[in-house]
Design a protein that fits this description.
With 292 residues, the chain is mainly β. It has helices at residues 28-34, 56-66, 139-146, 152-160, and strands at 4-6, 12-13, 72-83, 86-97, 101-107, 115-120, 124-128, 133-137, 173-177, 180-189, 204-211, 218-225, 231-243, 246-258, 260-273, 288-289. The protein has one domain (4-41, 53-282): outer membrane lipoprotein receptor (LolB), chain A (Clam), CATH 2.50.20.10. It is 12% helix and 43% strand. It starts with a strand and ends with a strand.
Length: 292
């Protein structure tokens, strides 16, 4: 795995991405955001042998110790998107207040904002400036439309390559797979104190997490809901950069299987953490509501 160290005394991170070109339909971004997964894993250096297996409790404690520590996160992003053989690209800005809000501004190549999205623990809102419309809905509505069972915690974790915050940590098994540590569980359920609706009680996930044995960062993860084998989310993270003592992946690949296959190759640039952010979201009075 490739790790680069960059001096930074202001908390800002920088990341150089490849050039991509395509255009994505504004309403399709919601589907991408709620169905993030991963594709082919980036190449890694051969691990030193022999590799000693550690217990699940030890590995999980190291995962939590090494994952990104932040309250605020912001970055520019760029991504390639593929669905049913059609390729597109999009870019923009993302802002996150941990466990609270995800704010996204979608900016096409012309440099003018086309779509603004704000996702909270219990709602999804979107402004489409291309056709003067807006959408406001809750997770139950969006999940019925997308035939998924996504929540804020799962979306935030897959975006940044961290573990789920509001799900139980027990019942994991440890093993070694292709030179990496692997944590697996067949029943990971949301903590009762964080369940917001009756439907969330049904969310029990089968989950696998792969860790680099050198730094214990998540390199690959997948999750699927029990009883819904036709829907699976995966993510890959690579080219980690050491900044201010924390590692963050420069490259992310996501994939989802849900009837058809969607792939997203993404990366961040001009990143910063722990700088308080604004999340402007005002719907113009002239805009009309739409339903997905």
């Amino acid at each position: 795995m490739k790790i680069r160290k960059t001096e930074n005394t202001t908390g800002h991170w920088s990341l150089v991405l490849g050039h991509w070109s395509l255009v994505i339909g504004p309403w399709s971004l919601v589907i991408i955001l709620f169905l993030l997964l991963s594709s082919c894993s980036p190449s890694r250096k051969a691990m030193k042998a022999p590799l000693k297996e550690e217990g699940a409790e030890f590995l999980f404690s190291k995962l939590k110790e090494k994952e990104l520590k932040y309250d605020w996160f912001s970055a520019k992003f760029s991504a390639d998107y593929e669905n049913n053989g059609k390729e597109n690209s999009f870019g923009g800005q993302i802002r996150i207040r941990k466990d609270s809000l995800i704010w996204i501004s979608l900016i096409p190549m012309l440099g003018i904002e086309a779509v603004r999205i704000m996702i909270s623990q219990d709602s999804v809102k979107m402004i489409n400036r291309l056709n003067d419309t807006y959408f406001i809905g809750d997770y139950e509505y969006v999940n019925r439309f997308l035939n998924t069972n996504i929540d804020y915690d799962l979306l935030q974790a897959f975006l940044l390559g961290t573990d789920l915050q509001f799900y139980e940590d027990g019942k994991f098994r440890a093993s070694i797979d292709r030179g990496e540590y692997k944590l697996s569980t067949s029943a990971r359920q949301k903590l009762k104190k964080h369940v917001r609706s009756s439907s969330e009680k049904l969310k029990i996930f089968i989950q696998n997490i792969w860790l680099d044995p050198g730094n214990f960062k998540i390199t690959h993860a997948d999750v699927k809901e029990i009883g819904r084998d036709n829907i699976k989310l995966e993510s890959n993270y690579g080219d980690f950069e050491d900044m201010a003592g924390q590692l963050f992946p420069r490259e992310m690949n996501y994939i989802i299987w849900a009837g058809n296959t969607i792939r997203v190759k993404a990366g961040f640039s001009k990143m910063s953490i722990n700088i308080p952010l604004q999340f402007p979201f005002k719907i113009p009075a002239s805009y009309a509501p739409v339903k997905l």
